[in-house]
Amino acid sequence: MRVHVVDHPLIAHKLTILREKTTPSMIFRQLTEELVMLLGYEATRDVAVEQVQIQTPVATTTGTRLRRPRPLIVPILRAGLGMLEGMVKMAPSAEVGFLGMARNEETLDIVTYAERLPQDLTGRHVIVLDPMLATGGTLVEAIRFLYERGAEKVTCVCLLAAPEGLATLEERAGEMDVDLYLAAVDERLDERSYIVPGLGDAGDRLYGLAE
Ligand SMILES: O=P(O)(O)OC[C@H]1O[C@H](OP(=O)(O)OP(=O)(O)O)[C@H](O)[C@@H]1O
Ligand SMILES: O=c1cc[nH]c(=O)[nH]1
Ligand SMILES: [Mg+2]
């Protein structure tokens, strides 16, 4: 596993507004999309391409296009859905599949409640989207699931990670071919396993249920 914390003033600026508890859902969604576009640009640097002959109005030339099979973008519902639009804008020819996972807030066990993915992921580069890497339980389950289906490579794009979650990922998926792109690594988890300082519950901030 390789961890890439993307250090860029625009990312730091947008992330700061995202963290503020007074930022309303509408702005939160917009900033999430913008952050994913910036992170997605970095995260797709090693996406496989092939050469293609094209005709410009002036001459024939050799260009580049994404190799088939196309990358598969997989947002982890619910909060990962807030990252989908930005990623699809960056890679419009990618395909999209879905994984619905939730952590039980008492036991922290992960429940996979939905899955809509190709049965066979052989040769596929999968780009997983989930804003929060807290204990790491969700991402470990997702990565394992995708490799069991035959994925060739998994890239994860998250906004925030806790050091505890990164350690768990290293321990349980460290041997796997995983690139993880992040906007920041925060201080720690609190007693409820929320990221500190974090941004609260990403799913709730994107899609309501706020107090
Ligand atoms: O690293 P972990 O400790 O597993 O926690 C991280 C997970 O928690 C959040 O989802 P949540 O379970 O709250 O579901 P939601 O997106 O539906 O809110 C988040 O989007 C991650 O998927
Ligand atoms: O801080 C956290 C931890 C898990 N899930 C979230 O949405 N936020
Ligand atoms: Mg949640």
Description:
This protein has 211 residues and is α/β, with parallel strands linked by helices. The chain has a single domain, classed as Rossmann fold (3-Layer(aba) Sandwich). It is built from six helices and 15 strands. Strands 1, 4, 5, 6, 7, 8, 10 and 12 form an eight-stranded mixed beta sheet that branches. A hairpin with a 5-residue loop joins strand 14 and strand 15 (195-196). The protein is globular, with a radius of gyration of 18 Å. The termini are far apart. It binds 1-O-pyrophosphono-5-O-phosphono-alpha-D-ribofuranose, uracil (URA) and magnesium ion. 1-O-pyrophosphono-5-O-phosphono-alpha-D-ribofuranose (PRP) is lined by residues 76, 78-79, 101-103, 108, 130-138, 165, 193, 201-203. Residues 79, 201, 203 line the site of magnesium ion. InterPro entries: PRTase-like (IPR029057), PRTase_dom (IPR000836), Upp_B (IPR034332), UPRT (IPR005765), UPRTase/APRTase (IPR050054). It catalyses: UMP + diphosphate = 5-phospho-alpha-D-ribose 1-diphosphate + uracil.
